[in-house]
Amino acid sequence: MKAPLQIKTLHTDVLIIGGGTAGCYAALTVSRNSEASVLIVEKANIKRSGCLAAGVNAINAYIVKGRKPQDYVDYATNDAAGIVRNDLLLTAAEEFNKVTKDMEDLGLVILKDENGEYVARGNRNIKINGENFKPLLADAVHKSQNVDVLNYVNITDLLVENNKVYGAVGFSIMEETAYVIHAKKVLIATGGAAGLYKPNNPGFSRHKMWYPPFNTGAGYAMGIRSGAEMTTFEMRFIALRCKDTIAPTGTIAQGVRAKQVNSLGEVYEQIYGLTTSQRVYGTVKENQLGHGPCYLKTSGITEEQDQDLLKAYLNMAPSQTLKWIESGKMPSEQDVEIQGTEPYIVGGHTASGFWVDTNRETTIQGLFAAGDVAGGCPQKYVTGALAEGKIASLEIVEQLKHSGEKEPVSLAKKAEEILDGYEKIRNAENTLFSIDELEEAMQKVMDEYAGGISSNYQFNEKQLDLAEEKIVRLTELADKTGAEDMHELLFAYELKERLLVCQVLIEHLKNRKETRWHSFNENLDYPETKEDFDKYVNSRMENGKIKILFRDLVKGDTYEHTNS
Predict the structure, then answer these.
(1) Considering the entire predicted model, what is its pTM?
(2) If you average pLDDT over residues 286-302, what whole number do you get?
(3) Torsion 133-139-141-143 (CA) sign
(4) How many secondary structure helices (H) and strands (E) does the chain include?
């Protein structure tokens, strides 16, 4: 038997779970607008954690000159075939330019033309030198009043009683210490879920993926277990990326206006459509038809454009720049091969995540969500995450003026049960399967039966039934895993989180009985789009079972939760 974990109890006004873009900016906003105490808990280190760890070379959601926020709402609504929350898109879009200016004031380099105007990249983007985006944000947090940061601590569970949140429980991944944190308000900003499906690159390179492999759906899982309502998990996100490096393609497509072409040199993107999902679908279909590989046509671009691309990728995906240099051929001398990634659940690109009201409060009182973990607002990108962190935290500041409720006594027992779960895994012996083996099995199941790469992202109901059956079995086995140290305890919980997200995802895929987004949601039993599915597919866990709720589309500028 290992010595029991040391227990530390902390108290704060605002607990922020996840120190990525949304979490850090939320902390900044609370600090600027109140004297409330804020604690950011991050399982890595906020200096380089989250989706912006490696940087970014463009602000992809910006209201450029001559455009207005409603234009952005219209674009995102069209791209998601109508399954969006109008109120969330509009309130985010209204903040895009303000948060961008704030980041520039914090030191972010935004490219400008000879007139001092931001350099636009398309209708909604501006160019930046954003390699240091996250360190700038982290530095601002560290300088803020009343904000503490707890790095290398992994939160696993919320403390919820009578549908109200009172804090959370987690453990250090560096020391044998567990934390019980009491808070008046909680913001989840943990990002989306990667690693559910078998990735493009196997074995040693399996974490060479589009979305951070450390984003395991932790926020979704703790919300699901606490009975929070989720939305639109069936709108999976599949990124179209440069082959092998999994570097973004938008830099090339928008930067040098490169078209998608097949191996015959034919431009195919117009045939299938130009929404995000259609661009992936077209590439998959061309390969199925024997017209692959598919490329972005860069051959013939100028030497200056070559250099622009090399520099642009250094701000975000240096492996692509290195690949060009190592091959001895610049983009102008060879087209860039492209492929789709495995599917992810990510609310920054699609509409998957927590069901929130206009102020980003979830269906659990006092619990907020922002960034990739929040649903209903696709195409939010970096500025959307900043905007949602700001919107949520301003509402938190307002609510704190009226909060004074005492914690229920039963919370202590709940915390104890969670801590007992840690000890059970730490002291498990003679486990049947390793965490790695179970994770690989999960990814194989999802890949083959729930629309992964090997099945061209397609699935039918029989396959989903099999996926569900196998994931339930793997969940049972995951409850019997063991951990030699605190780092392995982290991996054990990440596996549990992913398996729970898989279960909810499968249920969502089953219940949208149509194909609204090719590849993202390619249901072979229901290949057409149906008008009667102009609605949200939501879910809530009740007594250990996932209950599906269908909700009508929200068209207005504000939305409040009801009990229905």
Answers:
(1) 0.96
(2) 95
(3) negative
(4) 16, 20
